[in-house]
């Protein structure tokens, strides 16, 4: 085991161990200050209070994911985030907010809508 440990030190795989051996082998003279300062005993401090997570707006909680029904396929509408025309199909992403359904042109738009629905709802 000692041979393996020495081989690892020689290979540089355990540099921290080599430093420990060098420091142990070198005598410390009284006039020299140690390289590492030893901290004074720390006083017991009360743990810091954690900040509370921000409360989501009530409006954001009212946003629900929505799956378009087959009867809605082919309907033309406008994405409230980008303003692009959207033709509703089975892959169209949509949400329901305050009783109205909003359809999106891409997968990034619902995330923006969820973050601030009042900004995009008309």
Structure in words:
With 122 residues, this protein is α+β, with helices and mostly antiparallel strands. The protein is built from 5 helices and 5 strands. The protein has helices at residues 2-11, 15-25, 58-61, 109-115, 117-120, and strands at 64-66, 76-78, 85-87, 93-97, 100-104.
Architecture blueprint of SSEs:
Layout: H1 2-11, H2 15-25, H3 58-61, E1 64-66, E2 76-78, E3 85-87, E4 93-97, E5 100-104, H4 109-115, H5 117-120
Short description:
With 122 residues, the chain is α+β, with helices and mostly antiparallel strands. It has helices at 2-11, 15-25, 58-61, 109-115, 117-120, and strands spanning 64-66, 76-78, 85-87, 93-97, 100-104. The strands form 2 sheets. The protein has a 3-stranded antiparallel beta sheet with strand order 1-4-5, with no helix packed on it.
Strand sequence of the main sheet, in spatial order? Answer: 1-4-5
Shape: elongated
What letter string, H or E per element, gives the SSE order?
HHHEEEEEHH
The radius of gyration over CA amounts to: 32 Å
The fraction of residues assigned to DSSP E strands is: 15-25%
Strand runs, count: 5
Roughly how much helix do the residues carry, as a percent range? 25-40%
Major sheet description? 3 strands, antiparallel
Task: Kindly list the characteristics that best describe this protein.
alpha+beta, two-stranded antiparallel ribbon
């Amino acid at each position: 085991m000692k041979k393996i440990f020495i081989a690892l030190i020689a290979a540089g795989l355990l540099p921290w161990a080599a430093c420990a051996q060098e420091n142990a082998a070198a005598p410390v003279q009284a006039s020299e200050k140690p390289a590492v300062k030893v901290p004074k005993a720390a006083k017991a401090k009360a743990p810091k209070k954690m900040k509370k997570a921000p409360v989501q707006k009530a409006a954001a909680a009212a946003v629900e994911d929505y799956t378009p029904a087959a009867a809605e396929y082919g309907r033309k509408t406008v994405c409230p985030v980008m303003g692009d025309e959207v033709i509703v199909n089975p892959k169209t992403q949509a949400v329901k907010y305050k009783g109205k359904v909003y359809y999106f042109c891409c997968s990034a738009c619902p995330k923006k809508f969820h973050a601030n629905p009042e900004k995009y709802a008309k």
